[in-house]
Design goal:
Helices cover about 60% and strands about 5% of the residues. It is mostly helical.
């Protein structure tokens, strides 16, 4: 995989595209290209999934593994404001239910 990515980076059109995480055969992966890939794989898996679902899952997993690192998360997601990533610090209903269960000793 590293060898393939190195080849794609070396042959990518402009130098600015080399900073992109996901590259295709013709340069950076576009939003539409990512959507098509996610849609196809979700269909094959028999699930419903959207690119934003993956972004949200990444963000919540990142914060679970790096508690309180809103600056790092904002940088990775390309946000300039910490307020934008603060939404990922809010507990889900499942999180709250698990905490209630633990607190009640069940």
């Amino acid at each position: 995989l590293d060898e393939e990515r190195s080849h794609l980076v070396a042959t990518a059109p402009p130098a600015r595209d080399r900073q992109r995480l996901l590259l295709g055969q013709r340069g950076p992966l576009t939003h539409a290209g990512a959507w098509r890939i996610v849609k196809r794989l979700a269909f094959q898996a028999g699930i419903e999934c959207h690119p934003h679902t993956l972004r949200h899952t990444f963000a919540t997993t990142y914060l679970a593994e790096n508690p309180g690192d809103l600056v790092g998360l904002a940088t990775l997601l390309g946000h300039s404001s910490l307020d934008t990533v603060a939404i990922y610090t809010r507990p889900t209903l499942d999180d709250l239910a698990a905490k209630v269960e633990r607190a009640s000793g069940s």
